[in-house]
Amino acid sequence: MSFAPVLRSEWLKIRTVRSQPAALFAMLAVTPAFSALSAAPETADPQFDPLFMALFGVVFGQIAAVSFGAMAVSAEFHNGALRQSLAAVPQRGRWYAAKIVSIAVPVLLVGLPTAVAGLLAGRAGLGSAASGLTVGEQVRAVVGCAVYLMLMALFSAGLATVLRSQVATLSVLIPFILMVSFVVGDMSGTVADVLPDRAGQVILHQSYDGILGPWAGLAVSALWTAAALLAGAWRLRRRDA
């Protein structure tokens, strides 16, 4: 079977399982909501970053992206679904590639309006404190935000392929994103700069003092994602469905 029909079948699975489009909708709704709630013109703070503050809702919206990636993969390990998928597509690499693309494209496409909505909501809350942001900085943050959300969804998908469980995947990633990464960042300095979430979020900042720039940070997140996906591919080939 060629790649196109395999991709079409994987996209059909995602579209017809209500919880998966719901996760994308949650990402679109949660990000601007939290950006609006968290935006405050704290211009007296010397570390105040209006661009990151405007897009701060991404910190919470990424949970929906992570959930989407985990759900899309873990559904295959319930009730023998993977055996049926591999019976139709015996080439495991082709099936896995189609699964990855069917996750990446929707998250990227929804991630762009999500980033725009989050930025607009955050800017409205910041008022004049965001007036210094340039068009280039905002475009870079919007595009980078969409790519970052896609990478986090794929990172989750790779981990879910390894663990074969949505619950286990989310139990690892959500506490890591919301707590562990920030604690490590406060305690260890530059070590946190290369963590998958912290590195990618540099693209959302107007200014950055760490060892990575915006696109270099996103590249580090991409390397983490590639490693997770390769581990998932190895696990898929080594273990029976």
In a few lines, what is going on in this structure?
With 241 residues, this protein is an all-alpha fold. The chain contains ten helices and no strands.
Shape: elongated
Helix count equals 10
Rounded to the nearest angstrom, the distance between the terminal CA atoms is 19 Å
Low-confidence stretches: none
- Describe the largest sheet: none
| Number of beta strands | 0
- Secondary-structure element pattern, one letter each: HHHHHHHHHH
Backbone structural class: mainly alpha
The residue-averaged pLDDT reads 87
How much of the sequence lies in strands comes to under 5%
Helix share of residues?
Answer: over 70%
What integer value in Å does the Rg equal? 18 Å
Structure description:
The chain is an all-alpha fold and 241 residues long. The chain is 75% helix and 0% strand. It has ten helices and no strands. It starts with a helix and ends with a helix. The model has no long low-confidence stretch (mean pLDDT 87).
